[in-house]
């Protein structure tokens, strides 16, 4: 569906609901996704108390609904219709689909998500906008991560389609002001940011970034939460927070000084120094750099080999490496998100965004 397409009508939604009843069992994961989108589309954000830990089924349903955060009702309705339509077409051709075949998951508007060879690949898919991250993309990445945490893949990859990895937060996100004004917008954005980064902090399987091109802002900062970062030699790493009147997020105020030392971290996070892939590798942010001409081939060959390692052992090793940091990371994320909530209301930030939107300035 195109980004500008109108949302699904109530009639489309009702027809999708009756189609669901005729589908063969799509499995628990998809059923949870359908449940969550249905609740969000009809009742809005999750509004019931969290069930107890032993109430497994209701807790899974609650988690799925709650994970949709503040996704608007209309978007949830559209996602529900898209998901059902994808399920219907795949069940029509189910006789041709092998269980281990490349499974493209439908229902996403801003991503292409596939699961193959023990690898779930989440590809940001707005190449014409340099994979800038819209509100919808944040929500969809969270959904895709939640699904990947429970699917049968061993490792999960985040990458970008086109010449950019991602240009970071879509600056037009700030133009859609709700009735509660800019304060409400800043508050909702801070909640979304915190939820988004929490998903990376809590992700249980090895997470790999395949950085196919330049990366900006939040797409760079969250790299500190990945196990491995492979970069094309065309990639650059840029966090122009001060230029935008903003402050670090993605736990980078904590992870970057740990990874590269406080002086190098300050150059990136305060002064917006752009690193080449080789520099980012020397600073420890990137694991390995590959020539762009052989990047995809070399990286995927390596990842396919890694994905054959025993998945439980990899998961346990990741948890041992990360778990003692988790509490700290959640606290840092909360602090960074609330600082940004204030920054977004500052003149410095508003002027910088206006400049971008009116094309007076480029990075
Ligand atoms: C709710 C959670 C919030 C979390 C906060 C995170 C903080 C950040 O992520 S800060 C980083 C924000 N990102 C930027 O400041 C980048 C802004 N973009 C640019 O400076 C340039 O577009 C570029 C250097 C990335 C690329 O320049 P280039 O000349 O090669 O291409 P363009 O013609 O500028 O881009 C093509 C097309 O894409 C649109 N676009 C690119 N990036 C963004 C973006 N971040 N937000 C909105 N739109 C973006 C650009 O406007 C062009 O669109 P049109 O073809 O329609 O003009």
Automatic annotation (TrEMBL):
Transmembrane regions listed in the UniProt entry: none
PROSITE patterns reported in the protein's UniProt record: ACB_1 (PS00880), ACB_2 (PS51228)
EC number, UniProt record: 5.3.3.8
UniProt-listed SUPFAM superfamilies: Acyl-CoA binding protein, ClpP/crotonase
Name of this protein: Enoyl-CoA delta isomerase 2
CDD domains associated with the record: crotonase-like
Domain of life: Eukaryota
InterPro entries recorded: Acyl-CoA-binding_prot_CS, Acyl-CoA-binding_protein, Acyl-CoA-binding_sf, ClpP/crotonase-like_dom_sf, ECH/Chromodomain_protein, Enoyl-CoA_hydra/iso, Enoyl-CoA_hydra_C, FERM/acyl-CoA-bd_prot_sf
Catalyses which reaction(s): a (3Z)-enoyl-CoA = a 4-saturated (2E)-enoyl-CoA; (3E)-nonenoyl-CoA = (2E)-nonenoyl-CoA; (3E)-tetradecenoyl-CoA = (2E)-tetradecenoyl-CoA; a (3E)-enoyl-CoA = a 4-saturated (2E)-enoyl-CoA
């Amino acid at each position: 569906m195109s980004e500008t397409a109108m949302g699904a009508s109530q009639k489309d939604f009702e027809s999708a609901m009756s189609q669901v009843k005729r589908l063969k069992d799509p499995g628990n994961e998809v059923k949870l996704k359908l449940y969550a989108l249905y609740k969000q589309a009809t009742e809005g954000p999750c509004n019931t108390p969290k069930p107890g830990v032993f109430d497994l089924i209701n807790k899974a349903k609650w988690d799925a609904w709650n994970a949709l955060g503040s996704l608007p009702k209309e978007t949830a309705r559209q996602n529900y219709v898209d998901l059902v339509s994808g399920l219907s077409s795949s069940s029509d051709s189910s006789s041709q689909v092998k269980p281990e075949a490349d499974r493209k998951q439908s229902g996403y508007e801003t991503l292409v998500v596939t699961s193959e060879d023990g690898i779930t690949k989440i590809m940001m898919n707005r190449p014409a906008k340099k994979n800038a991250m819209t509100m919808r993309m944040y929500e969809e990445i969270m959904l895709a991560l939640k699904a990947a945490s429970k699917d049968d893949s061993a490792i999960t990859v985040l990458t970008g389609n086109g010449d950019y990895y991602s240009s970071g937060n879509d600056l037009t996100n700030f133009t859609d002001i709700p009735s509660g004004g800019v304060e409400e917008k800043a508050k909702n954005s801070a909640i979304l940011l915190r939820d988004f980064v929490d998903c990376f902090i809590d992700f249980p399987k090895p997470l790999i970034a395949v950085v196919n091109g330049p990366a900006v802002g939040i797409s760079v900062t969250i790299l500190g939460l990945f196990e491995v970062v492979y970069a094309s030699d065309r990639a650059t790493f840029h966090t122009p927070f001060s230029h935008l009147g903003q402050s670090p997020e993605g736990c980078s105020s904590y992870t970057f000084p740990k990874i590269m030392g406080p002086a190098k971290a300050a150059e990136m996070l305060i002064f917006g120094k752009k690193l080449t892939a080789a520099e980012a590798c020397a600073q420890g942010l990137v694991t390995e750099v590959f020539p762009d001409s052989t990047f995809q081939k070399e990286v995927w060959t390596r990842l396919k080999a890694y994905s054959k390692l025993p998945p439980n052992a990899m998961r346990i090793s990741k948890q041992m490496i990360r778990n003692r940091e988790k509490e700290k990371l959640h606290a840092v994320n909360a602090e960074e998100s609330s600082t940004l909530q204030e920054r977004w209301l500052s003149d410095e930030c508003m002027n910088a965004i206006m400049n971008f939107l009116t094309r007076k300035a480029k990075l």
